[in-house]
Amino acid sequence: MSALLELENVSRTYGGGLFSRRQVMAVNDVSLRLEEGRPEIFTVVGESGSGKTTLARMILNMVPPSAGTIRFQGTDLATVRAAAERLAFMRKVQPIFQNPFEAFNPMKRVDRYLFATARRMADVQGDAAITEAADAALKSVGLSLAEVRGRFPHQLSGGQLQRVAIARALISRPALLVADEPVSMIDASLRASIVNLLRELRDRNGLTIIYITHDLATAYYVSDRIIIMRRGSVVESGDARTVLDNPQHPYSQLLKSSVLSPEVPTGVSHA
Amino acid sequence: MSVLVVDGLRAYYRTSAFGVPRDVRAVDEVSFTVEAGEIYGLAGESSSGKTTLIKTIAAATQPPLEVLAGTVTFNFPTGTIEMQRAGRDTLAAIRWRHLSYIMQGSMSVLNPVRRVRHAFVDFAFRHIKQSMPRFLDTVRGHLARVQLGPDVLDAYPHQLSGGMRQRVTIALATVCRPEFIIADEPTTALDVVVQKDVLAMIREIQRELGSSILFVTHDMAVHANLADRLGIMYGGRLVEEGRTADVFRSPRHPYTAHLIASLPRLGDAAPKAGLTGAPPNLADPPTGCRFHPRCPLASDICRREVPPMTETLGHRVACFHPEPS
Amino acid sequence: MTGYPFYLLTRLGQFALVVFIGINLAFVVTHATPIDPVEQSIAASTQFGSTNPEAVEMMRQSLKELYGLQGGLWDQYAAFWRRVAVGDFGPSLSAFPTPVATLIGRALPWTVALLVVSTLLTWVLGNLLGGLAGYYRRNRALRVAGIVAMAFHPIPYYIVAFLLLIVFGYLWPVLPISGGYIMNMERDWSWAFIGSLVSHAILPVASLALVGLGGWFMGMRSLVSNIVTEDYVTYAELAGVERRRILGSYVMRNALVPQVTGLAMSLGAIFNGAIITEQVFGYPGVGTLLISAVHAGDYSLVLGITTVSILAVSAAVLLIDLAYPLLDPRVKAR
Q1: Contacts of C230 in chain B (CB under 8 A)
Q2: Which of chain A's residues have a Cβ under 8 Å away from the Cβ of B196?
Q3: Residue B228: CB atoms within 10 Å
Q4: What mean pLDDT is predicted for residues A203-232?
Q5: Is the model more confident about C88 or about B228?
């Protein structure tokens, strides 16, 4: 089987320039491999400072690794430099960000984003075809163009806006989504439906999704495989349920034991 | 006697755009009490009105937010205070001595350009009748309770980690041993490991001082682990309230029931349905029950009338079709 | 290396770099002008008398030595830096043979005093009023002050200066309109002399203040109205901290941080403004000297003034920069 995405001993340090004093190892020697034709939700779990966001940015080719190689469908990302190559790469690998209200310009109608993406990223020409592409993408996230047409970001709920962001990412028919904390800013009552949407996209659209989160409970619910990161390094990896049901590394165990269960503990006196 | 009595509170954001008045009905007809020594959890998502509610309770309302009806009354040992009628001096006298706050965003609640010591002096010195050196000794002793060394007094906020900063604000909020503490999402920005410690610390200090806490967060798991009683807000109204265990084990309002059922749980991968629709727009809320457009049980009466709060054995719910208790 | 020593070293490095580049530019620009000071001096002194070629050649050599123009460009460049190092810019051409250093030394105190007084006054007053106006939004007097400041701010400086001249020089002639003190007065630091200094400084300082005040006022007011919504201000208010203390220790204190940066950044522009001020009010400072040097084609004086100004402005910026970490402790950690 060929690899969709392959990271080989990838590291990233920050600082250490002419005038700075210390180097920060944001990501330290991370290797992983996602297979082509085997859609999955691959979860990266970590707390703040674990390097999970830096890892995402490297996979999105926004930051080059300091060491190691990242290959997407066999192509070394370090060689993806020309504008046309970058565009081709961006079509295949799309990001979804944490706060949809920051991802959209508050002064711009959200449908414009979809149209612009269809035109530039998916090479759709003609108004009718563009409208249709936008509508199709919105339908696949449970919305429709009629619902968002002419709306500004503040006129939509966080959940709706995150769906629009996902729809925008889907227009260019990517093979890989990189979702960095996509539900942490979403209200609890809407969170489940966004997480379900990720599962749907995997099962129905055959998308592979890298799901980056600090939340072990949603990770358990949604993931196929998981890596747990701490201070830039992977401390534990494997099948998500196996790892989370019975974590081996002390840090994974600490993380798991710190998760607050939404069950009211029995025996605690609630006056 | 209840420490806090909120009665029929209604607070709107009143603005006018081009002469057309516009009300955002952020808090509508909210009544509840908080008893001495209890942790009252207040849950709700964005636009539920919980932030407006605590602003109103703290008498920190500024235009365009206006209190249209209802009262907020605190019963402190030194007397009863009705917050919306109290003058500036009365409020200044109770603030921090009897009523303190732990705010969201430990990053930004301390002045970034001043040492931690100054926050203690500014906030608490006037209430603790001691000389400055004795006062600082008291503060150092108190910091030890939240496992902070005396040297944090000389640190600037940016030199402390997120967890340390939040412990500083906990120490700050409790150093005057107030009867009532309002905690607004105090652990939301913290990592899970730190969050657990901080919650334990809040619980411990609360028990020691016997204070009451109004604990506001959208995170139901935090409520499950901390709150004695729990109020659920939706669309500017309190829709359910009861002992935390009762609310979690047998939620009566369909919104609460859904909220609790859809919570992700470690070790549980069974499919969970999301709630359809979006939270209400409080500038133009749905008629009747504000949850009816999203409610699977909605009937005609729900669209016409606002459901009244009914109580069974200390478990209150505002719904025409409540789950049996 | 961490903390303040590191910060100090980078700032000193930046200072040296800026000064080096600036002085080089001054060297390049003055050497690129078609004015040849040596030939000008010769032309001036041979205008009336005889023109013995040998004598002229001797004069040329000694003038070249005086102006540091011997040898090739590199020799001149090296000589130039040697002179800068000891503060010798040769004789002035227009006031030959008075050394440039003497001329600048005479003019500099006037400019420094004028700028220090007006800048400090403007900055302190503008920030104070702006801060109060941002905090006490409903105070009527402060609102009026805001409107006045905003009204004055966009008026070009020279119009304000001339308005002041007309009002206080002609319509209601209570203030001297030209010079630094009463002419021919003995400079003995008597009360009369100091009084004359002050009365002569009022109009130039007032003109600079009127124009500068609005910028600081409006900047501070908008900074403050942002800062009052910061969590730490809300928190202090909820804690019942006195309003005066909140204004001083939480609001103004924090707003000063960007305003000090702003001051450092505007010093260059303030110096430029002084050149016009001194012209308009006939103030005997560096600006007046520079203008007359340019008109007279006084090559060495222009070079001297430029060098000294670059040094002075950069040094002032450096001083503010070095004080900055005391104001914002977060700088040290960066």
Answers
A1: 108
A2: 258, 260
A3: 21
A4: 94
A5: B228
CATH 3.30.200.20 matches C102-297? no
Contact between B123 and C254 using a beta-carbon 8 Å cutoff = no
pLDDT interval class at B275 (50, 70, 90)? confident
8 Å CB contact between B175 and B142? yes
d(CA C186, CA A18): 57
Give the whole-angstrom CA distance, residue B262 versus residue B271.
9
Q: Do A21 and C10 touch (CB under 8 A)?
A: no
Closest chain C CA to residue B174: C239
Report yes or no: A19 at the C interface, CB cutoff 8 Å: yes
- Number of Cα atoms under 13 Å in the Cβ half of residue C8: 7
What digits encode the pLDDT tens for the residues C254-279?
999 889 888 888 888 888 888 888 98
- Under 8 Å between Cβ of C325 and C331: yes
Q: Would the CB atoms of B108 and C253 count as touching at under 8 Å?
A: no
Q: What's the CATH superfamily of A3-258? A: P-loop containing nucleotide triphosphate hydrolases (3.40.50.300)
B158 to chain C, closest Cα gap in Å:
7
Residues 155-214 of A with CB under 8 A from B: 156-160, 187-196, 214
Q: Is A2 on the interface with B (CB under 8 A)?
A: no
Q: Give the amino acid at C238.
A: L
| pLDDT computed for residue B105 by the predictor | 66
- Residue B251's SS3 state is coil
Which 27-66 residues of chain C touch chain B by CB within 8 A? none
Q: How far is C279 from chain A (nearest CA, A)?
A: 43
Name the residue ranges covered by the structural domains of chain C: 102-297
In angstroms, the CA A65 to CA A54 distance is 9
Q: Is C1 on the interface with A (CB under 8 A)?
A: yes
C205-218 pLDDT, tens digit each? 988 888 888 889 99
**B93 contact partners, CB below 8 Å, separation of at least 6:** C240
Neighbours of B319 (CB within 10 A): 22
Instruction: Give start and end residues of each alpha helix (H) in B95-187.
Output: 116-124, 132-145, 162-174
Mean pLDDT of chain A: 88
Interval B296-310: pLDDT, tens: 999 999 999 999 999
Q: In chain A, what are the domain boundaries?
A: 3-258
Cα separation of B42 and B259, whole Å?
Answer: 14
Helical spans, DSSP H, in B231-318: 244-249, 254-261, 300-304
> How many CA atoms are closer than 13 Å to the CA of C299, on its beta-carbon side?
22
* Contact predicate C304/C5, CB 8 Å: no
CA dihedral sign of residues B197, B202, B204, B205: positive
b/e B128-144 (16+ beta carbons within 10 angstroms → b): beeeeeebbebbbebbe
Instruction: Say yes or no for a CB contact (<8 Å) between B111 and C236.
Output: yes
Kindly state whether C226 is in contact with chain B, defined as any CB-CB distance less than 8 angstroms. Answer: no
For the purposes of burial, counting CB atoms within 10 Å of the CB of C37, is it exposed (0-12), middle (13-18) or buried (19 or more)?
Answer: buried
Contact assignment for A217 to B266 by CB distance below 8 Å: yes
> What pLDDT was estimated at residue A17?
52
CA angle B260, B40, B30 (to 5 degrees): 85
Across the interface, whether the CB atoms of C2 and A19 are under 8 A apart is answered no
